[in-house]
Amino acid sequence: MAKRWAISSGSRFEKLAGYSRAVVDGEWVFVSGTAGHDPADGSISADPEEQTRQALRTIATALGQADAKLSDIVRLRVYVADRQDVMTVSKVLGEHFSDPRPTNTTIICGFPVEEIKVEIEATALKRPE
Question: Stretch 6-31: mean pLDDT, rounded?
Answer without folding.
Answer: 89
